[in-house]
Each structure stands twice: as C-alpha cells, then as structure tokens.
Amino acid sequence: MGKYLVLIGCFLLVGCGDKPSPQTSTASAPNDYHDDSQTTKSNPDIDKLVASIPNLKQGLKESHLQVEKIEHGQYTADDIKLSHGEIKKGDISYNFYTSAPSDKLPCPLLRTFMIDKRGEQWFPRNKTANYLMTGNCSLPPEN
C-alpha cells in the first residue's frame, strides 16, 4: 500500500504540469544532483537576480508573490545525458521558493518554480515559471 501511494504522489506531481527538474539543496547539505549548489536568502541578492530575468519581477508583482529563497547549481553530466538534449553543458538550474500563492489567480501556481539559465538566456522549467515570465498558463516549450 505504501508503494502505491508513493507512485500516486509522483503521478500527481507530474500531472500538475511540471517538468522534472533536478533537486537542489541548501548550501549546508551536499547535493547529489549538482556539482555545486548554493542558496541565496539575502533580499538584495534575490532582488538583483529576479530583476535580471525578463518579465519575472512584473509577474511576481502581479501575482502578489515574494521570493523567499533561491537555490541554484550546475547540472551534472548525468543530468545532461538523461535529459535527451533538453539540458546542455553549462546550464544552471534555479529553484525559487515563494510566499503562498493566492487561489484567486487565473492560473494555479505552486510555491516553487524552476528556471534554467543557458548563457544569457533564461528558460522556464514548469508551468508556474512560464506563467510568471510570459503570462501563459501552460507548460513552457522545450528549449
């Protein structure tokens, strides 16, 4: 019975419209998915990063969300190999943790969202990130 519930939980997460993303951890814990992960909790650092991502600051403002923490790190060689070309060497994964989203928004949002950086380009990795960056309540296109 326990295994069955875990499988249902996995299905529900995928069914919520999120692409699988590597897990990140806080700076104090080792991370199996990234070569080196870091956590940003400082408001000036968060504000600077948010402002550097096209349309994200406006999307957060319109959705009444506040970023509380960001975890980021580079993908490993295994992540890249398993992604079937979606993730490229040098891509950086950013996981954003926010205040609780309102249920009155036109798009149901999660408290966390993922964005990848490739060179100077930013790519939303799940429906919440896509909505905040583009206003489209759908899964982002593959990059």
SSE diagram, text form:
Blueprint: H1 2-15, E1 34-40, H2 43-52, H3 56-62, E2 67-75, H4 77-82, E3 92-98, E4 112-118, E5 121-124, H5 127-134
Antiparallel strand pairs: 1-2, 2-3, 3-4, 4-5
Helix pairs in contact: 3-5
Protein described:
By secondary structure, the chain is of the alpha+beta class. Helix 3 crosses helix 5. The chain has a five-stranded antiparallel beta sheet. The N terminus is likely disordered. Helix content is 31%, strand content 24%. It has five helices and five strands; from the N terminus they run H-E-H-H-E-H-E-E-E-H.
> In whole angstroms, how far apart are the ends?
38 Å
Count of DSSP H/I helices: 5
Give the ordered list of helices and strands: HEHHEHEEEH
Helix fraction bin: 25-40%
List the main descriptive attributes of the protein structure presented here.
single chain, 143 residues, alpha+beta, five-stranded antiparallel sheet, 5 helices, 24% strand, globular, disordered N terminus
How would you concisely characterize the structure shown here?
This protein is 31% helix and 24% strand. It is globular.
